């Protein structure tokens, strides 16, 4: 089945230790998104790629970076995780901007 | 700019009873509207969407929603809920122009009581 895959599902990292979360898609969609979702809150958009064009949200901390080496894969890098970065990280794709988004199962990040 | 309001943060309802989850939006342009469901420790799953055409939209799992342009609402309904419908429900809007990002409401926690 075509889908959005996120690995790992659960990630534990230490305070200040860089961590990378990965997302892959078999939908061949142009747009890939990264969201941060804290407990009992709505997902918050961090950034998105429209093809190779990177679009950062104005309030996304510099600590968060992203890479999209090809259509299928997108990575979220957290350079120096703080305790406040513990959250669920959701990857999503859409065929084009404004279309419905398809979400992966998420990666729950714990910072110790 | 777009924004979404979900007035009810929690909705408890007995099994087999009807439910309505409310969503109001504000936008200066025409919009697409969506409802997503999130089960514990999972991603968001699309329930239904309104893009154009008929204002009554049917989705998966027996849910439907009605777009009301004059009231800027997109309420989600189900005539008879099941225990398995217990989840978080998010209303979302995207504009037809500009960045087209999804703007989410704060979510409504639906709890179905046996």
Q: Which properties best describe this structure?
A:
heterodimer, A: 112 residues, mainly beta, seven-stranded mixed β-sheet, four-stranded antiparallel β-sheet, 0% helix, B: 114 residues, six-stranded mixed β-sheet, 12 strands
Describe this structure in words.
The complex is a heterodimer of chains A (112) and B (114). Chain A is mainly beta. Chain A is built from no helices and eleven strands. Chain A has strands spanning 4-7, 10-13, 19-25, 31-37, 44-50, 53-56, 64-67, 73-78, 87-94, 102-103, 107-111. In chain A, strands 2, 4, 5, 6, 9, 10 and 11 form a seven-stranded mixed β-sheet that branches. In chain A, strands 1-3-8-7 form a four-stranded antiparallel β-sheet, with no helix packed on it. Chain B is an all-beta fold. Helices cover 0% and strands 53% of the residues of chain B. Chain B has strands at 3-5, 10-14, 19-21, 24-26, 31-38, 44-50, 56-58, 64-68, 73-78, 87-95, 103-104, 108-113. In chain B, strands 2, 5, 6, 10, 11 and 12 form a six-stranded mixed β-sheet that branches. A four-stranded antiparallel β-sheet of chain B has the order 3-9-8-7, with no helix packed on it. Chain B has a two-stranded antiparallel sheet with strand order 1-4. In chain B, a hairpin with a 5-residue loop joins strand 7 and strand 8 (64-68). The interface between A and B is medium-sized, with 24 and 23 residues.
């Amino acid at each position: 089945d075509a889908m959005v895959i996120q690995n790992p599902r659960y990630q534990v990292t230490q305070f200040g230790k860089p961590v990378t979360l990965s997302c892959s898609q078999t939908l061949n969609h142009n747009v890939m998104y990264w969201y941060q979702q804290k407990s009992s809150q709505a997902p918050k958009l961090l950034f998105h790629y429209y093809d190779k064009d990177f679009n950062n949200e104005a309030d996304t901390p510099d600590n968060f970076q992203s890479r999209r080496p090809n259509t299928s894969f997108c990575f979220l890098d957290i350079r120096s995780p703080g305790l406040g970065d513990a959250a669920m990280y959701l990857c999503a794709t859409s065929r084009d901007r404004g279309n419905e988004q398809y979400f992966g199962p998420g990666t729950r990040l714990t910072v110790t | 700019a777009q924004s979404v309001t979900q007035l009810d943060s929690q909705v408890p309802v007995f099994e087999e009873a009807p439910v309505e989850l409310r969503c109001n939006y504000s936008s200066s342009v025409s919009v697409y509207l969506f409802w997503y469901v999130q089960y514990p420790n999972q991603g968001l799953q699309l329930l239904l969407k309104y893009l154009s055409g008929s204002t009554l939209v049917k989705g998966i799992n027996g849910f439907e929603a009605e777009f009301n342009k004059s009231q800027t609402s997109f309420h989600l309904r189900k005539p008879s809920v099941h225990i398995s419908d217990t989840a978080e429900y998010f209303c979302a809007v995207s504009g037809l122009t500009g960045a087209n990002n999804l703007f989410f409401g704060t979510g409504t926690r639906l709890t179905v009581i046996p």
